[in-house]
Amino acid sequence: MRPQGYDAPPGASAKMTVPRPAQFLAALGAFVRKTLVVAELEVRKLRHDVTELFTRAVQPALWLLVFGEVFSRTHAIPTGDLPYLDFMAPGILAQSVLFIAIFYGIAVIWERDLGLVHKLIVSPTPRTALVLGKGLSAGIRALSQALVIYLLAALLGVRINWNPLALAEVLAAVLLGGACFSTLSLIIACLVKTRERFMGIGQLLTMPLFFASNAIYPVSMMPAWLRVLAYANPLTYQVDMMRALMLADGTSTFHLAVDFSVLGGATVVLVVLAGCLYPNVVR
User: Fold this and answer.
1) CA–CA dist 283, 281 (Å, integer)
2) Packing angle between helix 84-102 and helix 234-246, nearest 10 degrees?
3) What per-residue confidence (pLDDT) applies to 48?
4) pTM across the whole model
């Protein structure tokens, strides 16, 4: 009870107001929770087709066993003190993440045809949470690729860094790269709207992104015009951080802080853009 004769200050509200920092933390917690729920729902779909994880592992295995073994004997690509297989293994892991993520947007087109996108859009879940949750699920799918490539690389004699902290950072890089490129895929799906056109554009983007990076050869080998594209390519920074973290003798060309900042910044921009374009899927 208020003391007798107490007068409230002018403009004071009878209701207690929650401090702004608390409101921000509550909103952030709700956003994270909804994002993780969307990611969990997407990952749950793997139970219906677990063989997808194994079939997707065939391509990176062939790259390491065929391309890597052949070029490691030619000594045509200057990799410094690193054997070519050591140099290539992180690049193939990044390539695997890219190949899984870049075609992830086709699932949105399937969901639209089934009427699921309409239900998601009218739900109270923020569109950016929907997009980010789907992006994280693509990164989680790519974790199986990391396991396969780590085992295969170890069998081929690649000097792996087994430090638990480095392994955790590689997993973070896989998740971040999967979120980045799957969100780019979602943007394409929002613009083209048909499966056939999406597959064509996805295939058109995959090879330039892969070959205009440092995945299978260093940037220093590239002509000047291609070097400019490589520096603007998020895959270049993902490969660089994986090469520094995955290998026992690995080093970063750009510095890990730069790698994570560029890839994280690209992911944030793409998530916001995809969130704005997401309603276009049903139009």
Assistant:
1) 6
2) 130
3) 63
4) 0.83
